[in-house]
User: Which sequence fits this backbone?
């Protein structure tokens, strides 16, 4: 059985808005491949940061529409043209999501803390001069600063704050962003991760990473910080074991 | 913009935020759009919304049917759930502004989309 995603002919456009491209398709293909898990997950709050044309949030809502009714979808973008285009794309598919023009999740962070069950992010990941980062036109869709990490490294702590205890994050990265280092950083915050899709295009090597909170990782961190002496040895052993299994999941670039 | 979204906006642009009041609403145009009734979702949301803010916001939007006070036992009543559903999900602010209770500054809502971009002196 095939499931619907957003249709390209129904995706709206604007000269200042990034159109769906290989990265967007890779992210939606990932969501589609993970569809059974997403349905079982039964998210109440789904969020996209940086919605651009609206292709991804529309697809996510369509993928879940049949089985998961009543979920709350919210999408943000710093580019007002992008949010307007997303509104048209959603309408063309008969889907509703709440939309906010804002930087990442400003204005939503306090009330949405620990509430988001599924977050999708196709960040501006292209390595560029740092000066190009931070506009609110189309450059905001791709300009990622050094290693393409400037905006990714701003988004991840906010994602950590917003994700619920059972929250999942799907994020697009490039090899240049050093995805395994991103996974290690998130691991320190208690997240397990897996590169769920790798795809080489003419221009870039894309990695879609899925993150989820792993209570065991958090326990290990607490053991390490709270118990000196014996506990430290056990803690670091535990940490090494999980790091090895983690690395086998997340260093295949 | 549905009132559920109004309910979750809290501006933090000036750093330390002390005012607990929700954003004010100025309505130029609102719409009512019917949407599927889902008690499961509403019950989950009841724990999470700032109920007083929802009551005030729905009054500003012209809907005064929500009881001023509610407690979880009312979730057993379909009549209450229908009103809660209507206020939370079916009243759309299409054109107007959100007003920061701290600074009085206005953030425009156009075609149902709030713009929470900081003022130049807040960046």
Assistant:
């Amino acid at each position: 059985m095939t499931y619907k995603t957003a249709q390209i002919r129904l995706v709206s456009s604007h000269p200042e808005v990034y159109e769906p491209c290989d990265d967007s398709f890779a992210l939606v293909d990932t969501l589609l491949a993970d569809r059974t898990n997403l349905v079982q997950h039964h998210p109440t709050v789904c969020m996209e940061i940086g919605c651009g044309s609206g292709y991804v949030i529309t697809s996510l809502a369509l993928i879940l529409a049949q089985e998961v009714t009543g979920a709350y979808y919210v999408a943000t973008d710093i580019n007002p043209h992008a949010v307007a285009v997303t509104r048209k794309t959603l309408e063309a598919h008969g889907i509703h999501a709440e939309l906010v023009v804002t930087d990442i999740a400003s204005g939503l962070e306090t009330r949405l803390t620990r509430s988001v069950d599924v977050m999708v992010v196709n960040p501006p990941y292209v390595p560029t001069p740092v000066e190009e980062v931070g506009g609110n036109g189309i450059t905001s869709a791709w300009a990622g600063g050094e290693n393409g990490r400037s905006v990714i490294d701003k988004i991840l702590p906010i994602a950590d704050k917003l994700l619920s205890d059972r929250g999942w994050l799907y994020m697009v990265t490039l090899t240049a962003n050093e995805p395994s280092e991103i996974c290690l950083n998130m691991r320190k915050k208690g997240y397990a991760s897996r590169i769920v899709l790798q795809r080489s295009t003419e221009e870039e090597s894309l990695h879609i990473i899925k993150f989820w909170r792993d209570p065991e990782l958090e326990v290990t961190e607490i053991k390490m910080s709270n118990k000196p002496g014996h506990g430290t040895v056990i803690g670091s052993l535990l940490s090494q074991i999980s790091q090895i299994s983690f690395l086998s999941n997340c260093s295949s670039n | 913009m549905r009132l559920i979204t109004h309910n979750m906006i809290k501006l933090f642009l000036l750093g330390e935020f002390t005012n607990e009041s929700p954003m004010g609403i100025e309505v130029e145009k609102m719409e009512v759009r019917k949407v599927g009734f889902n008690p499961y979702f509403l019950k989950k949301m009841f724990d999470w919304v700032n109920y007083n803010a929802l009551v005030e916001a729905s009054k500003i939007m012209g809907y005064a049917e929500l009881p001023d006070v509610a407690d979880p036992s009312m979730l057993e009543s379909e009549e209450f759930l229908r009103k809660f559903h209507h206020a939370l999900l079916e009243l759309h602010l299409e054109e107007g502004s959100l007003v920061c209770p701290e600074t009085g500054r206005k953030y425009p809502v156009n075609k149902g989309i709030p713009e929470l971009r900081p003022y130049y002196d807040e960046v």
Observations:
- The first strand of chain A starts at residue 45 and ends at 49.
- The mean pLDDT of chain A is 88.
- Chain A touches chain B through 27 residues (CB under 8 Å).
- The helical segments of chain A are 22-33, 35-41, 55-65, 80-92, 150-162, 179-188, 215-226, 230-249.
